[in-house]
Amino acid sequence: MTAKRDVTPTYEGRAYTRPDDELVDQGLQFDIGTLLSRRGVLFAGAGAAALGLAACSDGGDSSGSGSGTTASAEDLTEIPEETAGPYPGDGSNGPDILEQSGVVRSDIRASFGDSTTAAEGVGLDIELTLYDMANDNARFEGAAVYLWHCNRDGEYSMYSEAIVNENYLRGVQVADADGVVKFTSVFPACYDGRWPHIHFEVYPDVDSITDSANAIATSQIALPQDACDTVYAEEGYEQSVENLSQVSLETDGIFSDDGGASQLPSVSGDVAAGYTIALPVGVDTSTEAGGGGMSGSGGAPEGGGTPPGGAPESSTG
Asked: Which of 7-11, 33-37, 163-167 has the lowest mean pLDDT?
């Protein structure tokens, strides 16, 4: 009789990490392996198109106005270090999405895992171009970006009571040969006390993202006022209209030091087709990363900002 052999399932030539589980449950490291093996194919096919996209993202001036103009790569400065706030979901204060299989994704509109609920709102494409300032502003290929923001109601998945079991509007992407990462999302709300914003952390590589202490930059994107005014006139964003009227880039607890001059992206598009924002991000690994963590402890945080829905109240959002 022929002895029965154990056959470990494989995917794209790689053995399952967890042979008894489904492909989608193989864990973050298996997902990373899949991503990296596909990147070689994607880079070979992207070529000139990727270069063209990166070139487009470098334009603009440095006026720092609410219209969304942004500094060019030639005038690049290090992205300001900001708090990650109380809702990072990176394991620094409880919930940790960065250990979960499925977090490496470009489209962050829907939850993954036990839920597939999608966040509603006006479409928003986010493009960041990373520059390695310690290496003559070279495009930061291979750096990983974890990005997250609130939903149309000003709530944060994994924290706010109504959506504590969701993990949408959070995801990781790895910079391509031109230092570019892209996310497909929805336009976030303006909640009480904070200018509309998007959080992100930069890691030196995708293997580092499972520990938030490895972040080499933590910052926020300030959304341009013109786009905010237009989007918040749409159904579903009603509460954002009043909240936006009570804050400005000059009074916001995060952006007030310079009016968000280096954190305002360029913007294009409209409500019907969705918006696209693009921002050059200078990362200087020769300086100490001073962001992350949570500012304030108890009571009203410095800079204000308390999303609705039972989220923690101990820090700036």
From this structure: 33-37
In which band, very low, low, confident or very high, does the pLDDT at 172 lie, cut at 50, 70 and 90? very high
**257-284 burial by CB neighbour count: b if 16+ within 10 A, else e?**
eebbbbbbbbbeeeeeebbbbbbbbbbb
Residue 74 structure tokens: 């030639």
Average per-residue pLDDT for the chain: 81
Return the pLDDT at 288.
82
Taking the C-alpha atoms of residue 176 and residue 43, their distance in angstroms, rounded to an integer, is 7
- C-alpha–C-alpha distance, residues 304 and 315, integer Å: 8
**pLDDT, position 19:** 64
Tokens of 290: 């001073």
Residue of 65, 296, 69 whose CA lies nearest to 193 = 296
Judge contact between 89 and 100, C-beta under 8 A.
no
**Band of residue 158 on the pLDDT scale cut at 50, 70, 90:** very high
How are beta strands 138-139 and 123-132 bridged, if at all?
Answer: antiparallel
Residue 290: half-sphere exposure toward Cβ, Cα within 13 Å: 8
**Could you tell me how far CA 38 lies from the centroid of its own chain?**
21
Domains detected in the chain: 19-283 (2.60.130.10)
In this prediction, what percent of the chain has a pLDDT beyond 90?
66
User: What residues contact 41, with CB distance under 8 A and at least 6 apart?
Assistant: none
Euclidean distance between CA atoms 45 and 150, whole angstroms: 34
Q: Count the neighbouring beta carbons within 10 Å of the beta carbon of residue 300.
A: 13
In the predicted structure, residue 197 carries a pLDDT above the cut 60: yes
Contact of 79 with 281, CB cutoff 8 Å: yes
Q: What's the CA angle centered on 161, arms 160 and 166, to 5 degrees? A: 70
Phi, psi at 121, each rounded to 5°: 150, 175
Nearest CA-CA partner of 279 in 92, 77, 49: 77
